[in-house]
Structures are given as structure tokens and as C-alpha cells.
Amino acid sequence: MRQNNPFIDFFASGLLITFLVAALLFRFAHLSIWIAWLIAINVATAFYYTFDKLRATKHGFRVPEKTLLLLGFLGGTPAAFFSMLLLHHKTRKASYQWQFALVTIVQIALAYIWFF
């Protein structure tokens, strides 16, 4: 019998949403695949931060922090940042803030290596 792993379940569904939205944007909005991906991953990231905030207020099951961080790492950092600010979510948790800062620094370093 398979045990549910919330990280895998949420992350897989987040990627599925991202791939579907990116494919639709690529096909019908005629955006480049990279722009379509960035829009889609940011939509998915904002959705999961909002969902997690709502679940936190109702003491329900939560989106694992690893999922939120990985969605941010895959390009959803802008949505993660603004979701944290607008929803006041994960802003007081120092351990999460350090991890988020590390993800952002790694992204900036990778972007620098890629473009320069």
C-alpha cells in the first residue's frame, strides 16, 4: 500500500499545472517557451502560497515548505516574494526566510553564469 507523501503530491500537481499553463500560453498566446514557463510557474507558486495561507488559518493540511521553495527555485521566486508580502505568509519564520534567501542567491548566481 502506498503512503501519501505531501511533498511529492503537491510538487507533482504544481508541475502539472505549470506545464499545462505554459503549453497553453506557448500555443495560443504565441509566447516564447521561457516566458510562458515563467508566467506559468509564477501562477502556480502564487496559487500554492495562497492555498497554504488559507489552510494555515483553518488549521488544515499544509503545503510542505520544500514544495514552496522548489517552486520558487524553478522560477517562481517573484510570485513567492510578493505572495509572502501581500499575504503576510512565512514572513516571521526565520528558518524559512533563510532558505528562501539561499534559493534567491543561487538563482541570481545561476542567472549570472548563464548570461555572462
What topology emerges from the helices and strands here?
Blueprint: H1 6-28, H2 33-57, H3 65-87, H4 94-115
| Regions with little confidence, pLDDT below 50 for 5+ residues | none
Structural category is mainly alpha
Largest sheet: none
Mean pLDDT figure: 92
Distance between the termini: 49 Å
Number of strand elements: 0
Shape field? globular
Roughly what fraction of the amino acids lie in strands? under 5%
How many domain regions?
Answer: 1
**What percent of the residues sit in helical stretches (DSSP H or I)?**
over 70%
Q: Radius of gyration over alpha carbons?
A: 15 Å
The ordered string of helix (H) and strand (E) elements is HHHH
How many helix segments? 4
Overview of the structural elements:
The chain has one domain. It has helices at residues 6-28, 33-57, 65-87, 94-115. With 116 residues, it is mainly α. The chain is globular. The model has no long low-confidence stretch (mean pLDDT 92). The N and C termini lie far apart (49 Å).
In summary, what is this structure?
The chain has 116 residues and is mainly alpha-helical. It is built from four helices and no strands.
